[in-house]
Amino acid sequence: GSNTSSSPQTGTRRAGRNRPMQYSEHTHWIVNTSFSDCGGRYEIVSGCVAGGIKFWDLRIANSLRTVNIQRSPMTALACHPRIPLLATGSHAQFIKLFTPDGDTLQVIRYHEKKAAQLIGPVSYLCFHPNKPILAAGAADRIVSIYTPKEKDKT
Q: What would the pLDDT profile of 40-54 be if each residue is shown by its tens digit?
């Protein structure tokens, strides 16, 4: 039989027009949510402090998939609006860039223009609306701009 429920927390019921949805599969507090239009699907992406990223379809109450992206507490999450690219930040002083499938593209530990200076605990991430450029704010009171590096082909 089909798994239907009147509770949006556990069922696979499709949302009716103008019916608000709730998504509650995360087991830790939510760091950020973002709408994503990558890959031709309209999804919501959410991330929790435990490092789990969930992808949701607006019409379904259950998550489509979960990617556990990091073990240290996640303090920031950004999803590029047009490019299949996400970023997480950690209090452990790093930024991780990855694909929606969970493939790590780059780990950033230093400020872009100050190679010897570690970034502080990351508090905010934001992508440029059209380009693969990431702005990051940290507890060290520095805002840095990063351009993702090409992934090594080795």
A: 567 889 999 999 998
Element (H, E) at 126: strand 122-127
Look at the pTM and tell me if it is higher than 0.85: no
Judged by DSSP in three states, 118 sits in strand
Buried/exposed 58-92: b ≥16 CB within 10 Å, e otherwise = eebbbbeeebebbeeebbbbbbbeeeebbbbbbbe
Above 60 in pLDDT, residue 10?
no
Stated as kind and residue range, the H or E segment containing 74 is strand 74-79
d(CA 56, CA 63): 5
- Burial status of residue 103 (CB atoms within 10 A of its CB: 0-12, 13-18, 19 or more): exposed
49: its two tokens: 């402090």
pLDDT of 154 strictly over 60 = no
**d(Cα 75, Cα 32) in Å, to the nearest integer?**
9
For 39, list phi and psi in degrees, rounded to 5: 75, 15
Would you say the C-alpha torsion 109, 96, 79, 91 has a positive or negative sign? negative
